[in-house]
Every structure is written in structure tokens, then in C-alpha cells.
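Objective 1b of the project was to move from sequence-level analysis to a structural picture of ligand recognition. The entry below was assembled by the postdoctoral researcher (A.K.) and checked by the PI before modelling. It contains the amino acid sequence of the target and the SMILES of the bound compound, zinc ion.
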Amino acid sequence: MPRKKAKSKEPEESEEQRKERLRKLLIARRQEIIREAKNEIGKFIRGENRQLAETALDDGDWSVVDLAEDLNLQKLTVHKQTLNKIDEALRKLNEGTYGICEDCGSEISEERLKIIPFAIYCVDCMEKREELEKIEREERGI
Ligand SMILES: [Zn+2]
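Corresponding predicted holo structure:
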């Protein structure tokens, strides 16, 4: 009896399995970011306030970041933005609109999602946007 060829590197994955895998990936990324944010905050806040800040982050309360923005903690702002994107991706995963470009409605390639699991634009649209931003910056003379 001929054995089934195991030629494809990636095993067949059902839609449910794919969702589950992506969900885990996004949640892991989320935890990683919160950990980094805590580290970042820890550098600037000490003692009791630090404990408060860390608890706030666990609860998803990023008002401490607004505070941090006063301290010019740009890194934290980036963390917060990424976290928002991850939450958005998780929401889309639940809704079944995950992996669809917000601009043109086409599917974002699996390779791109592997690198940026919270991407909301396909490569083409992302490049277009970056191009536009560049032009805008130049026009404003920045
Ligand atoms: Zn697109």
C-alpha cells in the first residue's frame, strides 16, 4: 500500500486551527509588549508608583503612558500603539475579517502576516501609504 506522501512542509490546517494559531501568536506578542513596557516604566518610576503603574498596565490602563509621554518616553508610546493594533487584530480574528487589507479589501499574504501578525494593509497599500507620508513630510519641510 503506497504511503501518503508527506511532501508539503506545512501540514494542512483548518480555518479554526489557523485562527487559534494566530490568536496565540497575537496574545504572546501582547504579553511581550506589556513586559517591555513595564521594563521601560521601571527605569523611570520607582517604589510605590511603579507598582501602581505595573498593575495599571496589567489591567490595560495605559493612562500611565500619557504620564510617560510627558516624560518623553517615546518607546512606551510605540508599545501602546502596537498593543492597540494587536487588540484590533484579535477583534478582527473574532469577527472573521482578519488578514484583509483595510484599503483595498484584498487578502494580506500569509508571509506578511507571519512577520507582522497585526498588519492591516497589504504590502502594496502599505507602500502607497508610506510614499504618501513621505511626500507629506517633504511638503511640510520636515
Ligand atoms: Zn491593500
